[in-house]
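hey m, so remember when u said the tokens were messed up on ur end? i reran from scratch. heres the input so u can diff it against urs
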Amino acid sequence: MSGLDDVIATETTLSDVDGEAGRLVIRGRSLDELVIGCRYEDVLALLWAGLFPESAGADQIARGLGAARLQVFEQSRAADAQLAEQPPVDAVRTLLSRFEEGNDPSTALRLVAALAVFTPAVIRRAHGLEAIRPDPGLGHAADMLRMLHGEAPHPDQARALDRYLVSAVDHGLNASTFTARVIASTRAGLTSALIGAICALKGPLHGGAPGPVLDMLDAVGEPEAARPWLEAALSRGERLMGFGHRIYRVRDPRADALKGALERLAQAGRLDPARLRLAEAVEHAALELLSRNKPGRPLLTNLEFYTALLLEALGFPREAFTCVFAAGRAGGWVAHAREQVLRGRLIRPLSRYVGPRPSEAA
């Protein structure tokens, strides 16, 4: 029971993770389909359908998100020097904690918008730069990149971030999503649910893995050094970052979705091809070595491996990667919180006491 493996805690219509087949389904549609043909706003419309009194279409959500980004922008100015000294995820969480509670669509849009606005604002503030006002006419991913760099992104860059946000939007009952549902079940509100989810996400066993992937690539340096470097790391008992997953017994389907986006960036001249070749060499060597050294464990490429390379190529500092993950996952957190409120009860599991008993009277 440690870790609640194989315990079914709820029923959901939102997402299904098939670890044996390596398949992720969101509201009846495969991730492969969504990544290729949908914007983040489209997926929000899919996830949120029926969870609020009035369901909104993708275009309406896109307009609402644009307006919400403008609405929350002034609060990003509260990212003062003291806040900028904190890790980005802590700074974003602090700004989010100043929101009012609510369970309505407007609150949901503000929360999702806030993560896209606060992340670039906090990054820029840490470098002594002013936050950039959102452009409500842009897509959510494109505006997030524009607020980070101060100029409109190349279409391939905006599409790559859109792919990442879609890939990250929901993934079953992971630690942060379960946290959001527990908090929502108390009727605390969407703001509290998302703040709690971020607190769970920031832990290195959940959302903190992409950054160290880059540390590994930097240490390897050249494709020819991949195998000896990885062999030495494994001989020291070190974990290879970006490989293995608690659920997937085969390759994480999200990894291929992001690798495709990286290849397009390289073709468009927006990613150094040598960096991609290094990552591919490390992946190839790691998979071979892990298969040989740990034959009983399915340690295959996971989302974090190519996430690291993608977010680096888009100009996000590695210490802010968890914030970008949260910007994508926020839509799923909102959906799970609303589903829990509408269909569930207060989550109150039992525990089995295994400690000492008071001595009985003779």
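this time it looks ok to me. The two ends are 35 Å apart (CA to CA). if urs says something different then somethings off w ur setup not the seq
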